[in-house]
Structure formats: structure tokens, C-alpha cells
Amino acid sequence: MSRAAVTGAQAGLISCETCKLLTRPLDAEHAGHCPRCGAALEVRRFQSLQRTWALLIAAAICYIPANLLPVMVSNTFATSDAETIMGGVVFLYTSGSWPLALIVLVASVMVPLGKLLALAYLLVSVQRGMAGRHHERARLFRIVTFIGRWSMLDVFVDTFTVALVQLQPLMSVLPGPGVLFFAAVVVLTMLAAETFDPRLIWDSATHMEKQDD
């Protein structure tokens, strides 16, 4: 029966979070600094789970008003209309711009919600010591960090619209309070992805291998 590969932690090695250099720490309590880039080395990120949970819960709370409050308020000479994210999606779809409606729906509703659910799944799986599917969970974490930069699309659209449509007193477009909450969701989920230590995923794999031995 083939043996599993030895992990870096089992070999007494540590990877630099900045330049990814694999090196040996000074001692168990003080890992020291990377000999190549000088960044501080960490065997595991301090209180990774607690910090990630705190940021994730805060993002989930902000997600509700981000979708309920208007993100854009358009004022004309006779009317004033406030649009939420879903209201904007419906308007774009009914006006014939369904590709743009689909982009806004995915980037502004589905992506933030998917990041919240994915990070919550990773946290629960690590805390419960879930066995198996380690490669899939590591790949899921990489996807979450990759798509995080596209989550601000709705805020960018609102910003460009506000900057372009300023024909006062005939017409003006102003950002709504929902934009602040939506931006908070994006920032908090990005910070949560940064504070989560993906090496914890493989710690549970190592623990299960020791139990099998």
C-alpha cells in the first residue's frame, strides 16, 4: 500500500505567504522572516477561523440591505425613481438589454451570495475536520479569491452612470444607500478570503491519515 506524500508541515518547512519560498523556520514559536523577501513567516495565520467568521457574518448582514435598499436614484423634472439591484436587472431585461441584465445579476447578486456560501462551507468543513475532497475545497478557495475582483461591477456601473448623467436641473442620477452596503459586502468578503488560511484544509487530511495509521 502506497504512502501519502509528506506535507511541508510534517517536514518542518514553511511557505512564505508573499513570495511562496519554501524555507525552514527558526523555531516552533518564532518562525522568523523569509530569507528572500523579508516577510514575516507564519506557520498558520493567527486566529484565522475566528477572523474569517467575523468578517463573513458582517458581510452576510450587509448583504440584506444591499439588495433591499436602492443603489441608484434618478431624478427628472417631474419624477424621482429609486432602483434596487434586482429592480435594475428587471428594468434592463424588460428594455431588451438582457445580456447586461444577466451580467449585473451574476456579478451583483449571485457572485456575492456564492462567495458567502463557499466561505461558510470551507469554514464549517475545516472546523468539523471533514475528510476527503481536499483538492476540490482547495480549488473552490482559489475560485473565490479569483472572482472577488469582479464583484464590484455593479458599483462601477452606478459610478459611471452618476458621472455621465448629470444634466441638472433637467436630470440627475445619484448613488443610493444600497451602494455603500454592497461595497461593504464586497470588501468584507475579500478580507474574509484573505484571512482564511487554506492550509487548514490540508491539516484535516493529515489528521485523518494519522488516525488511519
Automatic annotation (TrEMBL):
Q: What does the UniProt keyword field contain?
A: Cell inner membrane, Cell membrane, Membrane, Transmembrane, Transmembrane helix
**CC per GO annotation:** plasma membrane
Query: Which ranges does the record mark as transmembrane?
Result: 53-78, 98-123, 143-167, 173-193
Intracellular or extracellular location(s):
Cell inner membrane
Record InterPro entries: PqiA-like, PqiA-PqiB_transport
Does Transport appear among the keywords? Answer: no
What PANTHER family would the database entry show?
A: INTERMEMBRANE TRANSPORT PROTEIN PQIA, INTERMEMBRANE TRANSPORT PROTEIN PQIB-RELATED
Task: Output this protein's name.
Answer: Paraquat-inducible membrane protein A
